[in-house]
Design goal:
The protein is about 30% helix and about 15% strand. It has about 240 residues and is of the alpha/beta class. It has one domain: Alpha/Beta hydrolase fold, catalytic domain (Rossmann fold), CATH 3.40.50.1820.
Length: about 240
Amino acid sequence: MVWHERAEQARGPGTGLAVNAERAVVRLGGGAESSVTLLCVPQAGGGAAAFHRLRSCLPPQIGLCAVRLPGRETRRREPAIKRMDAAVAEIMQDLDVTGPAPLALLGYCSGSFIAYKIVRRLLHARSRPSRLIVLASPAPRVVEPARWVHTKSRAELIEYVRDARITADTILNEEDLFKMFEPAIRADFETYETWECQAEPPVTIPITVVGAAEDKSVDLDDLLAWRRYTSSEFTLRLGQR
């Protein structure tokens, strides 16, 4: 279904406004001439803006796309997605934006789990992505309800994301500003905290994991655990945070 058809179907009765006109995948750089396209999935509460700076770091032959789910940026008025299958479906229907070049996926923090699920979906459809890149994220695991972040009080949530350094201090220090971002942050945590990660065969593409030695939120064992999720090449890179 083309963009304008999706937008027209999403118009609210009598409003004249398309509440779901924005696409879930947006292009930030590169085009049809790209030899590979990198699709980036942001951290909890994040959007495409989290990856704008990558445009100046990537060589011209690498196209850059990013995910913008409902509830953030230009889609702020749309209800945020709270379930993994719905988030993956939202992105999969817009993958045509990435163009014809081979696709690599990058997931930042909790976005790595959505990126991983998209990889599995593509492999099931006999479309082979070139690589999964994971930034600052543990491997998939069962999250006990007692540890759920999405149910924390506002003060506890702010403290958690501040310690994890996934939300700018300018947002965390202004209560009214944080309230704007809070629904999307909670929804993203709920998406992966309620996700039932089932035992499946390892993916057949390389996985590269990038972390920081002094990152208190993700220890070395958490990063190394991704090694079990691929039957291909596994690479771990540690840097300074």
